[in-house]
Amino acid sequence: MRDRQSFEFALTSAAVALHVRGGVVTDARIAAGGVGTVPWRLTAVEERLRGRRAAEPLWAHAAEAAAEGARPLARNGFKVDLLRRTVERQLRVVGGTP
Amino acid sequence: METRPPRSRLTRRTFIAAASTTGTVVVAGAPGPTASGEEPARPPGPAAARGDGTTGRVTFTLNGRRTSLVVDNRTSLLDLLRERLDLTGTKKGCDAGACGACTVHVDGRRVNACLTLAVRLEGAEVTTIEGLARHGGLHPLQRAFVEQDALQCGFCTPGQIMSGVACIHEGHARSPDEIREWMSGNICRCGCYVNIVRAIGQAARGR
Amino acid sequence: MSSQYPSAVGAPRPRADGRLKVTGQARYAADHGPDDGVHDLTHAVLVDATVGRGRITAIDTRAALAVPDVLTVIHHRNAPRLTYRDNPFPDSINPPGERLRAFQDDRVRFFGQPVAVVVATTLEAAQHAARLVEVTYDAEPPALDLATAPVDEPVEYSRGDVRDALAAAPVRLDATYRMARNHHNAMEPHAIVARWDGDRLTVWEKTQWVTDPRNELAAAFGIPQGAVRCYSRFVGGAFGNGGRTWVHSVAAALAAREVGRPVKLVLTRRQLFFGVGFRPAYDYRVGMGSDRDGRVTALVHDIVGETSTYERHEDDLALARMLYDVPAVRQEVRLARLNVNTPTWMRGPGWSTAANALEMSLDELAHELGLDPLELRMRNEPADDPSTGQPFSTRRLRECYAAGAREIGWHRRRPDGTRDGDWLVGLGMAAGAYPTERAPAQAHVRLDAGGTAVVRSATSDIGPGTTTSMAQVAADALGLAPWAVEFRLGDSAMPPAPVQALAWTMASVGSAVQSACGDLRRTAVELATGDERSPLYGEDPAAVVVRRGWMHPRDDPRRGETYQQLLTRNGRTHLEVTGGYEPPEESAFSMYAYSAIFAEVGVDSRLGMVRVRRLVGVFDAGRIVNPMLAESQAFGGMTGGIGQALLERTVTDTRDGRIVNAGLVDYLVPVSADVPEIRAIYLDGSDAEANPIRVKGLGEVVQVGVAPAIANAVFNATGRRVRELPIAPEHLL
Ligand code: FES
Ligand code: FES
């Protein structure tokens, strides 16, 4: 997710790995970029994913937790929301829509 | 028109190679015409000769020609080409890896010469825009750039072409969208992208 | 000219210097060296102020001077006093005010101001030593904010009674648009190589006008203008900030004089953000009144823009007065005095700024009235220029609208946009204009006995392809094939030409070239018709035409002779003529080039990313000398417009005036992936009133209206009106 279409660091980015067995998320690893000085592991999101059905209401619900505890600066408050949306989008891309 | 460097420059490089094989410190002499009337290489400045660990000798192939010289360890490949070897076709747009104007080929891969330290080139094969086409001709991509008017001011053009040649070789020129993505490291402020994409497409199709 | 065959003009000829450019042999300012007689070159690096305002209290150069290979460090404490004669317009394009001088006082006017220059025999040593110069400041808080900085007296324009018209208007709109500061960021950094030979100075300088460095350097050093020679054959883009001569050029020449050796100075990309001007930021308020049918009855423009504390750069914001048929208009422009370096022209200067605000507000009005934005513009199309009362020489905006609407498929536009998966898709349009300007110019032409010609004029080629298009004009006027004509430029000793800006080079220099070449052709023809040995002896010279170098009576193409035969027989090595163009003082017509821009954008419904999917520009620019070059210029201007709309903003640290995104990593200009297929259409035609070449200028108008068309498309896609440029994802979440 960036202003320019290429050749730019991300405003926010999300890396998503899901283990899905029998339609259920058995494990998840989620990391975010562009929101800290290092890539940030989103354990709260992972927790919301584990053991739940890999289907539509889950992605938005889990992504809600993406910015938990985030403290934005004066000019980058929008990133809190953008991060949730980016994670949600990527969860859907990886987990699929029904 | 001749695309090879003029004769005096070849002689200069020959001079560098000759000086280096005898182990002499490169260009110890004063600048100015030599007895034969040829100009010696531009002096690298006393720092290059200090021998206090701030300089290094490097031998590599430049546009098909073996080149050996002592360089200041801080010198980028870009500054070496431009300021010492008079190969000014490679341009400095940002000196920070953010524009692609300095793109050259090192061992067949496109690199930003501004981010490449000259001392690291030991044994490498370097090709610049001056060495892209041989025998006074034009590389098909150079011709395509002229035919498609893929340039305006021309300052980004050497970098675009070096990058474009590599882009085609990498197999990243199979569609306009792919070219756009893989050429996005080369900024053209004149806004020639539409025609650059066409030119690379033309050369990739071998027309 | 009418007696000649126009064959080169109008043809899509590839660039005459294309081969030099694609092989890396084109030499830009910083590429000059031994082959140009520059030996013993040294390198200069500037030291920049690290406070936004204040005084220098101490400079410690000991560490810098201790670096091997360093020759000197020059600063205000040790620099010689320079003459700095006044050098106002039209000798220069310095704006009114006190220009910044090279190391002449202890004052810091803006962050990044050059405070010292280091000279060394190697670039590495100069760069390293520049970092070791220790400068101590007495810092004061800089003025940086448009909203709070002191402003000059407003410049006012008014026609009709705006107050009454607004009060009576059934529909009213009031909106303020904020436009970010933009930096030109041509790919070639500003650079200069300076060499003194006694009291004579030669510079190879990046400039849009070789005359300006000549005059400014002569003024700074108190030497005659004729003692300075400026070369600038290839320029790596400029977009406006290569017009005036900035302080670094004087610093480089001063350094060369001090060390007694030639000096090369190349600004770093970061320094370009602090030292060579920018498109000023604006807060632009539009008040508008209209009737229910969309006839705009009142327009108010309250504008605050940036300038520096020491010079007054004023953009021309007249577009808002002439584009639509509005009876009552009031415009007030205030300039805020900020601790910045002086802004300058940037592509479509002023006109694109005004178009951004006016065209976005018109889109708002169309939405308010439930009218098609295109229809709204048609309803306000004037018959004559409402700002002067004069008739337009040509104004074909309606045709531009029709062609653009057809090309983009405007009929597909829905008031609430459409959807394509995650993408909200919208269509938007905007109009623009740019005045057709002209300036005096001269050209010299020499026809050699071999049958080829060389034409010279002290103009520039910053990218439009001047070398190529001028040769086409010359070829037709001489009756030669274009390949037989070479056009040379970029040397201050050539016949004078105006700055390459304001899209007036073809109108001005082109007219001079045509006139000189026409004179030369007539001279040759008269020589032939008066020469008993010529097959044309006794012919009426006015009835003789020349084609591909063959002179013949118009009605008998087989009887005649070549230039070559004529000159050889007469023992002449060449014929030469210097000719010029002097534009009329006044014109009975209002002259502008016009643009109609149509954009299709996609906006990611959740993430706010904006992608331009299609862009169409239709231009009424008079005669097109070279369609291939003209198309490239349009692509360039429209690409610049994408940047203005979606990417480009200079961000200042409000504590000290430091620009935080001073580099190409953080100041985003469009890359290839941002630019879709663009379609550029020039209406066929010509403007007989404009100038002898019948062109209206295209280098500027191609960017006017692009950004608002994209912004209006974003509104159509999302229903969100972002009154800020650039539009970023954060505005659309
Ligand atoms: S100069 Fe090397 S990437 Fe810009
Ligand atoms: S042609 Fe000017 S920057 Fe690309």
Give short descriptive properties of this protein:
heterotrimer; B: 207 residues; Ubiquitin-like (UB roll); DNA polymerase, domain 1; 2 domains; five-stranded mixed beta sheet; 5 strands; 30% helix; disordered N terminus; C: 733 residues; alpha+beta; Aldehyde Oxidoreductase, domain 4; seven-stranded mixed beta sheet; six-stranded mixed beta sheet; 25% strand; binds FE2/S2 (inorganic) cluster
Quick description:
Chain B is an alpha+beta fold and 207 residues long. Chain B contains six helices and five strands; from the N terminus they run αββαβββαααα.
Describe the structure.
The complex is a heterotrimer of chains A (98), B (207) and C (733). Chain A is of the alpha+beta class and 98 residues long. Chain A has helices at residues 43-49, 56-63, 78-95, and strands at residues 13-21, 24-33, 40-41. A three-stranded antiparallel beta sheet of chain A has the order 1-2-3. In chain B, helix 3 crosses helix 6 (193-204) and helix 4 runs parallel beside helix 6 (193-204). Chain B folds into two domains: 29-131, Ubiquitin-like (UB roll) (Roll), CATH 3.10.20.30; 140-205, Orthogonal Bundle (DNA polymerase, domain 1), CATH 1.10.150.120. In chain B, a hairpin with a 2-residue loop joins strand 1 and strand 2. Mean pLDDT of chain B is 82; it is low at 1-43. The longest helix of chain B is centred in the N-terminal third of the chain and has 15 residues, at 7-21. The two termini of chain B are 22 Å apart. Chain B is elongated. Among the domains of chain C are: 18-25 and 439-581, Aldehyde oxidase/xanthine dehydrogenase, molybdopterin binding domain (Aldehyde Oxidoreductase, domain 4), CATH 3.30.365; 347-437 and 587-731, 2-Layer Sandwich (Aldehyde Oxidoreductase, domain 4). Chain C is 25% helix and 25% strand. Chain C contains 17 helices and 28 strands. In chain C, helix 5 crosses helix 6 (247-259), helix 12 runs parallel beside helix 13 (505-529) and helix 15 (627-646) packs across helix 16 (706-718). Chain C is globular and about 80 Å long. At the B-C interface, helix 2, helix 3, helix 4, helix 5 and helix 6 of B face helix 1, helix 3 and helix 15 of C. Chain C: InterPro entries: Ald_Oxase/Xan_DH_a/b (IPR000674), Ald_Oxase/Xan_DH_a/b_sf (IPR036856), Ald_Oxase/xanthine_DH-like (IPR016208), AldOxase/xan_DH_MoCoBD1 (IPR008274), AldOxase/xan_DH_MoCoBD2 (IPR046867), AldOxase/xan_DH_Mopterin-bd_sf (IPR037165). Chain C: This is Xanthine dehydrogenase family protein molybdopterin-binding subunit.
